[in-house]
Design brief:
Number of helices: 12
Largest sheet: none
Strand content: under 5%
Number of domains: 3
Number of strands: 0
Shape: elongated
Structural class: mainly alpha
Order of helices and strands: HHHHHHHHHHHH
Helix content: over 70%
Radius of gyration: 31 Å
């Protein structure tokens, strides 16, 4: 290898770092370095790549593609659409169960946002330390300076990219909060004791809906749903005969919506729990009391309506 060739290679490698170094300063938002600034320079720049192009040319095309499609992240950067939250994720027949689901989802989002919050605090601390070293240390070695500036931009890029995902989590939290407020029209002003008292109906509604699906599909309730009904205190075969009759009637209905399903499940649930008290009989057979132990839970009323909140504050 000639001295001239060596000089050219060293110059190419140096130009990569120098260009990145330069772009860190000149970048419009100070946070992003396009792929082409790195992959399009240095020893790999002219490497043959797909599409009969060079590695550098494909890096430039990729930058344009990412910029073109990137705007979609403003919409699909969160877990679920508002439609999905309402129709799929909060689809329990019992509103108390939907409240529970909202609580669980909010807890997960809060945890994710807290992790992101402290990651950003740590990242910004590192940014500050690097910026101070670059500003105050006038005797920095050239390569140490380049290394620090690359680290600085990597950190700032990470912070900037994290905003998209943080915004997505924020969207979910705000949506869930709005759905929580809407759901208060169905169920509000409840305590832990109230939730315990509703557990039988909540589980029975789910068991009935799942059993209806079994009957629609095969004409019989599956083993798993039979067990679920028994755990609540229901005679599975008596329910199965009733559900067979309902499914036949359901097939003849003119309506395309599920109003009939909700009415049937609600009415049957109220009869079995309020009138027949199947859950209490089950507890007696098991040797347990069906009474809720108030000392083991919070008595504060939650999910208050606006006027109730105002009265409480007064």
């Amino acid at each position: 290898m000639t001295e001239e060739t060596k000089t050219e290679e060293v110059g190419t490698e140096l130009s990569l770092f120098e260009q990145v170094n330069k772009e860190l300063v000149l970048s419009k938002d100070g946070m992003k370095v396009p792929m082409s600034y790195v992959f399009g320079r240095g020893v790999t720049a002219n490497t043959p790549s797909f599409g009969a192009l060079t590695f550098a040319e494909n890096a430039a095309r990729t930058d344009l593609a990412l910029k073109n499609v990137g705007e979609l992240q403003n919409i699909w950067n969160h877990s679920h659409s508002q439609w999905s939250w309402k129709h799929l994720n909060l689809s329990y027949h019992a509103p108390h169960k939907n409240m529970r689901q909202i609580a669980a989802e909010i807890s997960r989002k809060k945890s994710a946002l807290n992790e992101a919050k402290w990651r950003q605090v740590e990242a910004e601390l590192k940014v500050r330390k690097i910026e101070e070293e670059l500003m105050t240390n006038t005797n920095l070695d050239h390569w140490r300076e380049v290394e620090l500036k690359i680290k600085l931009t990597k950190l700032k890029e990470g912070i900037a990219e994290g905003v998209t995902y943080i915004e997505g989590a924020m969207k979910d939290v705000l949506t869930l909060n709005e759905l929580f407020e809407q759901l208060k029209a169905k169920v509000s002003n409840f305590s832990e004791a109230d939730i315990e008292k509703e557990e039988t109906k909540s589980h029975l509604k789910r068991a009935l809906v799942q059993s209806i699906r079994d009957v629609r599909m095969s004409g019989s309730i599956t083993k798993a749903e039979q067990e679920y009904l028994e755990q609540i205190g229901i005679n599975p075969m008596k329910v199965q005969n009733l559900l067979r009759a309902y499914v036949q009637k359901e097939a003849q209905e003119e309506s395309w919506d599920v109003t009939g399903l909700y009415s049937f499940v609600d009415e049957l649930t109220n009869e079995l729990v309020d009138k027949c008290q199947v859950d209490k009989v089950r507890m007696e057979l098991q040797g347990f009391s069906s009474d809720y132990i108030e000392d083991f839970g919070y008595s504060d009323k939650l999910a208050l309506l606006q006027h109730e909140t105002e009265e409480k504050s007064e």
